[in-house]
Amino acid sequence: xxxxxxxxxxxxxxxxxxxxxxxxxxxxxxxxxxxxxxxxxxxxxxxxxxxxxxxxxxxxxxxxxxxxxxxxxxxxxxxxxxxxxxxxxxxxxxxxxxxxxxxxxxxxxxxxxxxxxxxxxxxxxxxxxxxxxxxxxxxxxxxxxxxxxxxxxxxxxxxxxxxxxxxxxxxxxxxxxxxxxxxxxxxxxxxxxxxxxxxxxxxxxxxxxxxxxxxxxxxxxxxxxxxxxxxxxxxxxxxxxxxxxxxxxxxxxxxxxxxxxxxxxxxxxxxxxxxxxxxxxxxxxxxxxxxxxxxxxxxxxxxxxxxxxxxxxxxxxxxxxxxxxxxxxxxxxxxxxxxxxxxxxxxxxxxxxxxxxxxxxxxxxxxxxxxxxxxxxxxxxxxxxxxxxxxxxxxxxxxxxxxxxxxxxxxxxxxxxxxxxxxxxxxxxxxxxxxxxxxxxxxx
Length: 444
Description:
Layout: E1 16-17, H1 19-29, H2 31-46, H3 48-51, E2 57-67, E3 100-114, H4 118-184, H5 190-225, E4 233-234, H6 247-257, H7 259-279, E5 285-297, E6 316-326, H8 332-399, H9 405-439
Parallel strand pairs: 1-4
Antiparallel strand pairs: 2-3, 3-5, 5-6
Helix pairs in contact: 1-4, 2-4, 4-5, 4-7, 4-9, 6-8, 7-8, 8-9
């Protein structure tokens, strides 16, 4: 027989965890949760960008040109972030093609004074995006906890099925030995031993498959918990499932606590504030500007004066400070973006309604499954008791030459099936209770 061989080459697990330990480990190390927290940190950092728009902007520039100077003896280009008021003496001759050197160095400051709500809308949109990402992170957390609970119960169930297979094999081995002794003594027909041998082989195969099922469940458990080991065993005893609320209360709790609904509602707020920020681009803006510069142009002024250094050395100082009022009155591209964003708001609101409907249906489905599993378990336990009594009677009849091997085999199969059914029924109850905890967000 091969019943004592280990399936595959994985070997036994080197680590075991209770359910609480597994959940605690997964909260810290499970890759999906680690990635979700990293995404949340990135979104939180991105939310600081709009607030930085209130901070002053300082820019420096250095420029050198060879250019005609028909209007201004100092030539320079506009540079982003630095405001350079026009300073210079206009030439009388405006038709020459002679180039003159021109240099400039300066540093400028621009400070937002009042933007009529544009930055505030951007801030609100960024904060709403953070709330949406928090909802997604909580969704991943609930999914991970549910996966860990399911994995834990699956390992315990697989071990229970293995225990039932081992017990069936031991009973079958005892029956085979009894039949073999009876045949050797001439008290039984050879068919009694061959039937017992066939049953022994069948339950031996069941044992091998059950061991493989345990290894597979332990591999899944290790993956969902996030441990580095290939296999992870489940230790400790399964606690009885906690009481659960009524269906109406479960639906209310789910709709109030579901992180995905919260995330989608935050997306609605984010899109609304984005629309507001886009519309605010057409509002006025008031900012403070200040510049300190040194410049020089090589062209003579109207008075005939040429800057010392011939324009190659920026040695003419200037400074300024002022308020700048701008108002982009008409911009059809902004209007189009605003309209598109407003349409997207409607889509986001529809997504909220969609999730509410999906969640309500999901709660009802899980609830029915939970009630069914809870009601079925006592019947399964009662069936197991009857199957044990039936096997005891068949075994006694067989040992006293009143029963046949076929009768004993039927009783053995019925008992093994009943033991497995109770194990699986318990698993279904525990998993259904974990599913309800997931959909009503108990573990947040």
